[in-house]
Amino acid sequence: MKSYIYHTATETAHALIKHLIAMMKREPEKTFYFAFSGGSTPSLMFDIWANEYKSVTPWMRMRIYWVDERCVPAEDSESNYGNMRRLLLNEVGIPDEYVYPIYGANPPEKEAKSYSELVCNTVPLWGGFPAFDAVLLGAGDDGHTSSIFPGQEYLLSSFHPYEVSVNPYNGQKRIAMTGCLLFAARKLIFFITGKNKADVVRDILDSGDTGPAAYVAHHAEHVELFLDDQAKGRGKAAI
Ligand code: 6PG
């Protein structure tokens, strides 16, 4: 597990974008398969990416998937696809056929099954499972990741690539990438910022089994953490 820590969320977002671009530059003939999480943290990265790195990103060699999605229509402000579409994808001219949204308006169980099939049929396999080149994850302050919430850890050992999960705080259904795909990825990159995430980051760094995010970080093979000082717990009063 390798950590990259920066003073601010903005600096962390810049570093992560440059990290992804450099990854693609190292293999100029390769098409890269990425899965993105949603929530608020990535919005900063999407906005910076569209405004400052559009011309230096090989969009035509990227295929865009999602880690998870809220079961809402794309037009809903809660939609992870809708958010990335608005902030980034509409601004950079990546062809629609390279973008594979989870359809949050579909019946959840049906969509989890059909998205699992789509990913299995379009993402290159490695060891029998679709292997994303990079899966970008966030972490909730309750320790969830990929919409796998505490108490729903069974999803970490599911062999269904995507399953329906439930946000326990509002009952909202979600489509979530499960452990079989998370652990098949060539690289997992956590992008976590803000002082409210300091406890979950400490769990990720120290323990490994206190919640879904910590478990995934400790049981995956290639994990990178992109953190700002606040998420790392720096700048707090010494105790
Ligand atoms: C989602 C995300 C989720 C996210 C964490 C952190 O759909 O909400 O994919 O797993 O990574 O909840 O969200 P924030 O970045 O908003 O704190």
Could you describe the 3D structure shown?
- With 239 residues, the protein is α/β, with parallel strands linked by helices.
- It has a single domain (2-234), classed as Rossmann fold (3-Layer(aba) Sandwich), CATH 3.40.50.1360.
- Helix content is 35%, strand content 20%.
- The chain contains 8 helices and 11 strands.
- The strands form 3 sheets. Strands 1-11-10-7-2-3 form a 6-stranded parallel beta sheet.
- The longest helix has 18 residues, at 9-26.
- The protein is globular, with a radius of gyration of 17 Å.
- The protein starts with a strand and ends in a 7-residue tail after the last helix.
- The model has no long low-confidence stretch (mean pLDDT 96).
- 6-phosphogluconic acid is lined by residues 37-41, 67-68, 70, 80, 138-140, 145-147.
- Mean pLDDT over all positions: 96
Q: Do you know the CATH topology?
A: Rossmann fold
Q: What's the number of helices?
A: 8
Distance between the termini: 27 Å
CATH architecture: 3-Layer(aba) Sandwich
CATH class designation? Alpha Beta
State the domain count.
1
**How many beta-strand segments?**
11
Topology, pairings included?
Layout: E1 2-6, H1 9-26, E2 32-36, H2 41-52, E3 62-66, E4 68-70, H3 80-92, H4 108-122, E5 125-126, E6 129-130, E7 134-137, E8 162-166, E9 173-177, H5 179-182, E10 188-192, H6 198-206, H7 212-219, E11 223-228, H8 229-232
Helix pairs in contact: 1-2, 2-3, 6-7
The chain binds 6-phosphogluconic acid.
